[in-house]
Amino acid sequence: MGIFSYNSTMKLFTNFLEVLQSIHEQSFLNKDVKDANSQNLQPGRIYWDKRPAIVLMVVALCILLLHYLKFNTAFYATLNLWFSQVSDNPAAKVMELRRQTFFPLVTQAWWGFWHLITFVLIPVLTIKYILKEPLKNYGLGVGRLREHIKWYVLLAAPILSFVVIVSFRDDFSNHYPFYKLAHRSWFDLIAWEIVYLLQFICVEFFFRGFIIQACRPAFGVNAIFVMIVPYMMIHLSKPWLEASGAIFFGLFLGVLALHTRSIWGGVAVHVSIALSMDIAALLQTKGLPQHLFP
Questions:
Q1: Label partner for 241 (CA 20 to 30 A): which of 50, 63, 229, 278?
Q2: For the segment 32-57, what is each residue's pLDDT rounded down to a tens digit?
Q3: Alpha carbons 8 and 289: distance in angstroms, whole number
Q4: 214/223 Cα distance (integer angstroms)
């Protein structure tokens, strides 16, 4: 009856639930004994695991900061504040700076800078000085990635095919790349892609490393579903297909991150998809750059 028959679909769904059950069981395996030994707790008492509370408050703060500080308006306000300290005419200085050739690229660097601060630096400081845990516990190692690389390929392949199809839609080609001068020169395109793709390392560490690994001891596999909510919400400014897909994309990347104990498979998937989206959109609109520099 085909690969999408009722029986085969239900079997895939059942297998998926079994994977979630396995992750959940591993999360709580000998947890009480380990917690008692590592924190000098009295066995038999019910203790509040404060890690999720700390981490989710930090997550709320980081997303709040990012939402209000990553945009050009915040960058211009910062420039005005700076020039007001060193110049009698800060507005003129800002306008002079905005006329520079690479100023639009600098604004994208500002956007990337705040992703680095909120999605990496603040979480790393939280892990190191508040949770006092090793960073390797938060998905920065290779883990079991090699054993499960095929699942990342299976996740990315249909999405890459879908990118080719939707690249013919005006809402897609007009939305990507975010940097509207990426076609101007190869320098613009490469510099933009470096900022853009590094941002995905920040995103993967924040959502598939920081959130789910910190919440896993208390929530087990439910840490994935806790992570999905803010992950979907950061996509609300994007086309509805991408925002909707973030729910399921976040689910599968979360499962794989917990299963492999590594964020790097998710980084590879995100980078390959994002790069293909930008290139596909350029090919459908302005074309690839023709000059090395503008």
A1: 63
A2: 444 544 555 555 555 677 889 999 99
A3: 47
A4: 8
The model's pLDDT over 124-142, given as tens digits with 9 standing for 90+, comes to 999 999 999 999 999 999 8
HSE toward the beta carbon, residue 106, CA cutoff 13 A:
11
- What is 149-179 written as a DSSP string? HHHHHHHHHHHHHHHHHHTTSHHHHTT-SSS
Return the closest-CA partner of residue 239 out of 156, 160, 157, 174: 174
Q: Evaluate whether 111 touches 76 at the Cβ level (below 8 Å).
A: no
What ranges do the domains of the chain cover? 49-284
Quickly count: other Cβ atoms within 10 Å of residue 251's Cβ.
Answer: 18
Whether the CB-CB separation of 116 and 202 falls below 8 Å is answered with yes
Q: Are 41 and 47 in contact (CB under 8 A)?
A: yes
**What gap in Å lies between CA 56 and CA 293, rounded to an integer?**
44
SS (H, E, C) 177-211: CCCCCCCCCHHHHHHHHHHHHHHHHHHHHHHHHHH
Q: How many CB atoms within 10 Å of residue 259?
A: 20
pTM: 0.84
